[in-house]
Amino acid sequence: MQIRTRYRRCAAALAALAAMGSLAGCAPEPPAEPEQLTASEAGGVYLDAVCPVNAAWDRVDLEVDRLRLAVGRGEGDTAALADEFERLGAASGKAAKELDPEANTWPKGAEAPVERVRKSLIADEKQTAKAAKLDAEDLVGYAWPGADEAAGAAAEARAALGLPADAESACAQWAEQQAKQQTEKKSGKSESGSNGG
Questions:
Q1: Among 49, 43, 51, residue whose Cα is nearest residue 95
Q2: Distance (Å, rounded) from C-alpha 26 to C-alpha 92?
Q3: pLDDT > 80? residue 49
Q4: How many distinct helices (H) and strands (E) make up the chain?
Q5: How far apart are CA 48 and CA 43, in angstroms?
Q6: DSSP notation for the chain
Q7: Residue 3: its pLDDT value, please?
Q8: Which residues pair with 35 in a beta bridge?
Q9: At what angle do helices 167-193 and 39-72 cross, to 10 degrees?
Q10: What is the pTM of this model?
């Protein structure tokens, strides 16, 4: 008997709360508008997204070179390369989300090339799962589908965003700039905290 009474009280309380919520206008919030990026912000957002992918590609290329040497010696363990493909797929998927026009509004003239880069990243994410399953001999001679188109789209995006033409240089400069800002932040914090209070 007590359980039923408690249940009725709880049900009544929940119904009252629900009614109050609907009166108060507890409708779900509309999705946030994409952030309008300035030209300088856009370059940083783009590099934050794609530089980890470029680094992942460098590791994949290194493992492919190692695999070629191993196959030449009659060996062919693809485990390390499969791991790098998995990391590349994850980095590509993350970068594609960061470049999504629903998250950011790109400056005029950069929208189309950035969208092509985003689509190539989505394709690469899918392709890494297939490539990771190939045997050693197939991997050594494997030609990545859409590589030329992806490189062309990336070059166009860098040009549209006012970034260096070379991807490696763009990422190296960005890493230096980020490291410098981190150092300045740390030194600023330590100076402001060392006044003896």
A1: 49
A2: 37
A3: yes
A4: 7, 2
A5: 9
A6: -HHHHHHHHHHHHHHHHHHHHHHTT-PPPPPPPPEE--HHHHHHHHHHHHHHHHHHHHHHHHHHHHHHHHHHTT----HHHHHHHHHHHHHHHHHHHHT-TTTEEPPTTTHHHHHHHHHHHHHHHHHHHHHTTS-HHHHHT---TTHHHHHHHHHHHHHHTT--SSHHHHHHHHHHHHHHHHHHHHHHHHHHH-S--
A7: 41
A8: 104
A9: 120
A10: 0.76
Banded model confidence at residue 195, pLDDT cuts 50, 70, 90 = very low
pLDDT in tens, 109-139: 999 999 999 999 999 999 999 999 999 999 9
**Contact predicate 121/63, CB 8 Å:** no
pLDDT score at 31 = 56
Q: Token digits for 99?
A: 């470049």
- Nearest CA to 151 among 133, 171, 132, 167? 167
CA distance 37 to 142: 38
Q: Which residue has the tokens 């009474």?
A: 5
pLDDT of 166: 94
Local structure of residue 195 (DSSP, 8 states): S
